[in-house]
Amino acid sequence: MDNRTFIDKIAERTGRTREEISDLTESLRVIVAEAIKDGDIVAIPSVGTFETKLRGDRITIHPASGKKMLIPPKLTINFKPSSLLKQKIR
Amino acid sequence: MNEKITLPTLVGLLADKTGKQKKQCEDFLREFFNTLVDAMETGENVRIKSLGTFKVVAVEPRKSVNVNTGEQMEIPGHNKIVFVPAKELAEEVNAPFAMFESLELPDNVLEETLPSSEISDTIVSEAQAADFPEPETDSQENEQEYEIGNEFGPESVLEPESGMDSITEATESDEEHPETRRNYRFLLGFACGVACAAVICLCAYLFFFEKWVVSVSGEKKTEVSAQTETSTPSANADVRQIPEPVVSDSDKKDLIAAADTDSKNEQTAKAEQTAEKGQTAEVPTRPSDEPVYDTITKTRYLTTMAKEHYGNYNLWPYIYEENKAILGHPDRIRPGTKVIVPPLSKYGVNPSDPDDIAKAKKKGVAIYARYQ
């Protein structure tokens, strides 16, 4: 399901226009991004949690050149599905 | 930081941001996630622009072992959800680390940065504990460390594990900087605490010492008045050399006055007296020829007795010799065994003579040799 169908579906369910929904989705994205950037956890019941995790830097060997590379640390977004959701999709 | 944002909070935030009613926002959020879950339930991947893609991925069944029982078991195949954040969002979240780029390391990697910085760290902390240095030096040290940390690139590392650590510190020194600062502040506080404790102890010591001196001088007074024609304590001789031979009543009074006022002298006198006493106490050779009985316990061996009675644990073979009849292997004496501790004069041993100690050692070796 791509973005357009997703938005359409929500619009249909809530009875609102597509523009409205895509605005709201954009706002939701901004809010979630702000929250997890600060290290908060966004927990949505029966769906899961969004949070950031620090992936430390590490040394790897470049597969092609065989050189040692230092990979810098990174903050990644982690989504952990709730057990309910896990059960549903099983 | 580390707060949990729940759905109601999210609704509130969304309402604030969009200026819509809370109810509308709540409806939207509920439908949003319901649609998401419904789509995933049917095994569909959901791509939400600017947020990311929720993928449903099949996991093949695989064999595993129950860690508790060690039983073989099979984990059945199932689906799992993989969330791939949109590039835009991922970059936004990773903004604090965006300036880093992957580096190429030279091959001849040597162990450097971390151990040295650690050592300097401990040295600094020790120095702080010992004699509170200025905070400026701290920050300087800190900055130096920081610089060292940043220079990790060309220096690099020998072992991959420690190397990783050191480089972790190096690249993150940017963020760890305030933390080390806090650490130093803590150390400084600790040092101050120690100093305060030391000052209090000193005060207490001085106070009690003063009291003690007063009491001692009081004793002296009585002592002096008790002795009429006898000589004054030899320790006080330096003050009372002249009046000593003819001690009249007036002289006595003078003496008392001197004892009262000249507390310093009194102090030294007392110290000398105690020193004398200590000497006599320290010389453990008992003049009396009577043997002393002692009992072996779990924590009291022949050597402990030798140390206590003769002042040198190497002299234990003499106790052993005295009790040869009842003792077996010197290391396997039963607790509760009563032994006689003979006077050293019986064997003509002088505990302060190194030759005698050497002899005793030889004797000990000989005793052990019997049980080989």
What does this structure look like?
Chain A contains three helices and five strands; from the N terminus they run ααβββββα. In chain A, the strands form two sheets. Chain A has a three-stranded antiparallel sheet. Chain A has a two-stranded antiparallel ribbon with strand order 3-4. Helices cover 43% and strands 31% of the residues of chain A. The two termini of chain A are 19 Å apart. Chain A is an alpha+beta fold. Chain A has two domains: 1-40; 45-90, IHF-like DNA-binding proteins (HU Protein, Chain A), CATH 4.10.520. In chain A, helix 1 (3-14) packs across helix 2. With 372 residues, chain B is mainly alpha-helical. Chain B has four domains: 7-97, IHF-like DNA-binding proteins (HU Protein, Chain A, Irregular); 113-195, no CATH class; 227-282, no CATH class; 292-370, Roll (Membrane-bound Lytic Murein Transglycosylase D, Chain A). Helix content of chain B is 57%, strand content 11%. In chain B, the strands form three sheets. Chain B has a three-stranded antiparallel sheet with strand order 2-3-6. In chain B, helix 5 packs antiparallel against helix 7. Classes of the chains: A alpha+beta (90), B mainly alpha (372). At the A-B interface, helix 1, helix 2, strand 1, strand 4 and strand 5 of A face strand 1, helix 1, helix 2, strand 2 and strand 3 of B.
> Regarding quaternary structure, how should these chains be classified?
heterodimer
Number of structural units classed as domains of chain A:
2
CATH H level of the largest domain in chain B: which superfamily? IHF-like DNA-binding proteins
Could you give the distance between the termini of chain B? 71 Å
Shape of chain B: elongated
Give the total of beta strands of chain B: 9
CATH topology of the largest domain in chain A: HU Protein, Chain A
Main β-sheet, spatial strand arrangement of chain B: 2-3-6
Question: Which radius of gyration of chain A do the C-alpha atoms yield?
Answer: 19 Å
Please report the first level of CATH classification, the CATH class of the largest domain in chain B: Few Secondary Structures
Largest interface, chains and sizes: A-B, 60 and 69 residues
Radius of gyration of chain B: 41 Å
